[in-house]
Design a protein that fits this description.
This protein is α/β, with parallel strands linked by helices. Helices cover 34% and strands 21% of the residues. The chain is built from six helices and ten strands; from the N terminus they run βαββαβαβααββββαβ. Helix 2 crosses helix 3.
């Protein structure tokens, strides 16, 4: 299995890289600073930016599947997903790569909180998503629009707040909305779930919510 990873140096991306290598996969990772990447000697590094179409294409070319853990690194307006995901989709189309599993967010869709208690839904939608997480949520919504219109075999994994705690080895899964009172999940459990989707057709062309 040949895997292309975007966002490999981030919190979730490094876990994905570690798991792919542990599974014996051939990994190509797009990295801004390959020399600082802890798995640099075990992957095929492509030095460059996710905003560089040529670097993105070289990362994707020859892969069986693309894993993306790209996302905002702050609460500011960064437009990471708005700029990078269209380039990944274009590169996949050009090189014939079909499968992509992308890390998203529970805030990507309007009805994502439909199973939450009314008070929590109001607080998150009316305050958190419109103030503190305004720009990260906008980016996730842009990613959803790009993937859903791509024609690729895409899956967008949509967790709530990510933690760096230890994996529990299980999570609640829902294709319609965030599981009731689901407020967090570890990056380790998310990485494990994303790995499981590589060969799983269940969520192709869909988003899937996961939470503890």
């Amino acid at each position: 299995m040949k895997v292309a990873i975007f966002g490999a140096s981030g919190g979730t991306g490094s876990l994905l890289t570690e798991r792919c290598l542990g599974a014996g996969y051939e990994v190509t990772a797009l990295l801004r600073s390959p020399e600082a990447f802890p798995f640099r000697d075990r992957v095929r590094p492509i030095e460059g930016s996710a905003f560089d179409g040529d670097a993105v294409r070289r990362t994707v070319d020859g892969a069986d599947v693309v894993l993306s853990a790209l996302g905002a690194r702050s609460l500011k307006k960064e437009d990471v997903l708005e700029r990078a995901v269209p380039l990944i989709v274009e590169a996949m189309r050009d090189t014939g790569v079909r499968r992509i599993v992308a890390l998203g967010s529970a805030g990507a869709l309007d009805d994502s909180l439909s199973k939450q208690p009314a008070y929590r839904r109001w607080i998150v939608q009316s305050i958190v998503y419109k103030t503190l997480l305004k720009w990260p949520v906008a980016s996730q919504r842009a990613q959803w629009r790009t993937l859903s219109a791509s024609g690729l075999e895409w899956t967008m994994v949509m967790p709530p707040m990510l933690t760096n705690s230890r994996a529990r080895g299980h999570c609640r899964i829902d294709g319609d909305a965030l599981p009731r009172n689901g407020s967090r999940i570890s990056r380790s459990d998310v990485a494990d779930f994303m790995m499981q989707q590589i060969d799983n057709p269940q969520w192709i062309g869909k988003g899937v919510y996961i939470a503890w």
